[in-house]
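Crash report, auto-generated. Payload:
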Amino acid sequence: MREGRAKDEISPVADRVLRVLLPIAVLALGVALWELAVRVGGIPPYVLPSPWLVFSTLVSDRALLLASLLVTLTTTLQGFLLAALGGVGLAVLFNQSRLIEYSLYPYAVILQVTPIVAIAPLLLVYLPQQAAVLACAWIVAFFPVLANTTLGLNSVDHNLVDLFRLYGATRRQVLFELKLPAALPYILAGLKIAGGLSLIGAVVAEIAAGSAGAGSGLAYRIVESGYRLNIPRMFAALLLLSLAGILIFFALSLLSHVMLRRWHESAIVREV
Amino acid sequence: MTVDRDKPDTPIIALRGVGKSFANGVVALDRLDLNVWPGEFVSLLGASGCGKSTALRIIAGLSEPTRGKVEWIDAQAAGATGARRIGFVFQEPTLMPWATVAANVRLPLKLAGLPPDAQARVDSALARVGLSGFAQSYPRELSGGMKMRASIARALVTEPNLLLMDEPFAALDEITRFRLNNDLLGLWQSLGKTVVFVTHSVFESVYLSQRIVVMTQRPGRVFTELSIDAPHPRDERFRTSADYAGYCRRVSEALACASAVTDESPERS
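Recovered output after restart:
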C-alpha cells in the first residue's frame, strides 16, 4: 500500500543522487547566506570572516596550515593504531584470562570516564610533549575498541563453540578461527568510533600543550590564531580539522564495508 | 516391546545408567540406558525438554554425565588419538557466516591439521549433499535447506562412524524437510554410518528410523523401544502407505503413554 510507506517513495538511483546532492545544496545555501550576511551587515573579519576570506586564507597560509595538518594527522593516526592494537589486545587478554580482566577492567573504565581535558595537563608534566599528545589520543580512543571487541568476543554462537570443542580445537584455534572473526563486525564498529575520538584526543592534547607554549599541530594553530585575533586563519584551521575528521570516518567506513560486504548483514543492501 | 533382530554382538556405544542434573536443580536425565548398534539408524523421540538433546550431547562428549557412564565399545570409533570420529549436526545450521561453504565444510579437517587430501574430501562431501556448485557461496546466500545440507556435509567430511543429529530439520518447511529426509536416508544407506537422530516428530522418526527409542519427560529415561521393520530404501510410497500410518499410530500411543508417566501430571482443561 502506497499510503502505508513511511518515507517518500523514490527510485533507488534518485535516492542515491539526492543523498549526495541535498547536503551539498544545504552547504551551498549556508555558505551563501553567511557571505551575504557578512557583506550586507558589514561585519568586520575579526568578528566573522566571510567564507571567501576563509578560503583565501586557507590558500595563502597553505604551507603553514598543511604542515600543521600533517602533524595532527600523524598524531591521530599513531594514537588510532595504538588504540586499535591496545583495545583489541586488551580485549583478547581479558577474554583469555578472567583474573586479568577482573584486575584491569575497572581501570580501563576509570581512564575512559575521567575527562581527557583534565588529564592532558598532567600528562604534559610527566611526558615529553609528543608522547603526551599521543597518550591523550590513545586514552580517548582505545576504550570503544576494547568495549566493542569484548562484546564481540563474547557474542560467539554457542553451537559453534561446541562444534570447535567437538573437533578438539586448541585455545589458539578457537581464538583465531572463531572468536576474532565473529568479533570482526564489533571491532570495526569500535574502530569507527575510535577514529574520530583519536582526532579529538590529539586536538585536546595539542590545545593543552599549546597553552604551555609548545606544539605546531592544527589545534595549536587555532589557539595561536585566537591570541593574535587572526580569525580567518582560525576558521581555515577549523575547516581542515573538520575535513580530516570526515576523511577518517569515510576511510574507516570503507574499510568496514570491504571487510564485511560478503557476509555481514550490516553491509548487505537488500532488494525489496 | 523390545527389539529382537539380527544385530552385531557389540554396540558401538553404550550409555549405562546415565544421569544428568544441572546446577539449577533440573534433572534432565535419570538412569538412561541406551545401546547404539553399528550401522543402525536410531531415533530418540520425546517431547520438548525430555533430555534427548542432553543425551546426544553426552554421547558427543560435549556434556559430562553427573551419574553413570558412556562406554565406547568400538575402538575404531573411539579413535587412536582419543578424538572420537563423530559428526554432529545441530538444530541450526551453525555455519560460520564469514566463511564460504567450502571453508565451513573444511573446518573439521583444518582443526585437525589439514590432511593432504582435504580438498578432495571437501569436494566429495559437498557433492554428496548436492552443493558442488555452491562451494564459494557464503551461508547467507543459501536457503535454509541448503544451509542444513552444508552442515551435513561438514559432519560427513571427517568420515565419522557415528553421526549425531539434534532435530536438524525442525526449523525447515515440510517440503524441504521431506526432501532432506530422503537425502539423509540415501546417505545413510550408501555410507553405512551409524546415525542417532533426535526428534520430537513421530512422523519423521517413523519415516527415517530402524529403531525408535521413546523417552519419558523430566527426568528423561527410556520408556520403550519400537522397531520399524519396513525395508529400506523408503520413499514417498512408504510415507503414504498404511504400514506407515500404522507405525505412526503405535509410536504416537507409546509417546502418549510416556508423557503420562511423567512426574508432573499434566493439567486437564
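Post-recovery validation: Chain A has two domains: 10-43, 49-267.
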